Amino acid sequence: MASSEIDALTQALARLPGLGPRSARRAVLHLLKKREAAMAPLLRALDAVNERLATCCTCGNVDTTDPCSICADPRRDARMLCVVEDVSDLWALDRSRLFPGRFHVLGGRLSALEGVRPEDLTIDALIGRIAAGGIDEVVLAMNATLEGQTTAHYIADRIERFPVRVTQLAHGLPVGGELDYLDEGTLAQALRARRPVV
Amino acid sequence: MASSEIDALTQALARLPGLGPRSARRAVLHLLKKREAAMAPLLRALDAVNERLATCCTCGNVDTTDPCSICADPRRDARMLCVVEDVSDLWALDRSRLFPGRFHVLGGRLSALEGVRPEDLTIDALIGRIAAGGIDEVVLAMNATLEGQTTAHYIADRIERFPVRVTQLAHGLPVGGELDYLDEGTLAQALRARRPVV
Ligand SMILES: [Zn+2]
Ligand SMILES: [Zn+2]
Prior knowledge:
The structure is a homodimer.
Chain A: H1 4-14, H2 21-33, H3 35-52, E1 54-55, E2 62-63, E3 77-84, H4 87-95, E4 101-105, H5 123-131, E5 137-140, H6 146-158, E6 165-168, H7 184-192, E7 195-196
Parallel strand pairs in A: 3-4, 3-5, 5-6
Antiparallel strand pairs in A: 1-2, 6-7
One zinc ion binds at residues 56, 58-59, 61, 67-68, 70-71 of chain B.
GO molecular function (chains A, B): DNA binding; zinc ion binding
Pfam family, one (chains A, B): RecR_HhH
Protein name (chains A, B): Recombination protein RecR
């Protein structure tokens, strides 16, 4: 029944995580019916984000400014650096408002299986930030997966020579759990009970 | 953590039916990370639809052309007209590919409670289409709710004087059920067993 434009919109929405063909259809119908209240704001927001989208050269966060709003925020404690695998992990931790410092996004985790090597991640940039000084504590907030923990150990080894405290999230995390899926209570507990990497 | 633009995008998505704050955040993250594969097509599709969106002056369908693609399709049986409450019902019926005719969208149903009167719906336009001739059967496909059935009876009364067969969907529909939520099997059965309005 729908024109190719409406079909294309439905398909573009259906490909988003958490949406399927059915919910995409309902969303499109909603957009068509609420042109001013729903379609226009979504289009404006998407346009603005697309226009200004940037990856932060400092931390790897995705934002509409570079440096990102976290790196540019003077209220953030520059002495604390939290290393995460992915932007989604950064967002999850930041949402919890439990970590007052800044972040470093690795862009993945080491994986023999998927052929992800240290040079495929932003580990050299991380070393650079730590070597530049001013950082007291590096919190390794990798996922509690085998690959996440391998990555944490690898990084801990690489930064051992710097005068920084290296900690990792307490393993109250469910085994195999992905950071981005945890409730804030679990995240809070894991962060509070963070311990030095041995 | 996010800029106001990214927040605005998250909120615009979170307001769509079937999405909440959490799935909207995941969708936004996906869009940010897959700028070429996800963000660009969505923006293009939304832009195209927004640019050309129109309500069909004939049937009330929402499409990117007026007359809509159904009204403009010569393969559609112009002698059969299916009257629905809402565009979503039209889409649901059309998706099932069971109805070969055209549609008429009322834009709601009569409701004493919500103060919806006949003149608030496109009933006069429907009468006009029937009066213009060429229609053999009018299928009343209102929802199986009290208000839907009240609306069906009201319309059946108004078009009694025309030489058309007036039918309604068989009431195999679950009581209180909304057309848009039914599976195609139920829709098919209801359409096959449609019966004259007494
Ligand atoms: Zn940054
Ligand atoms: Zn039409």
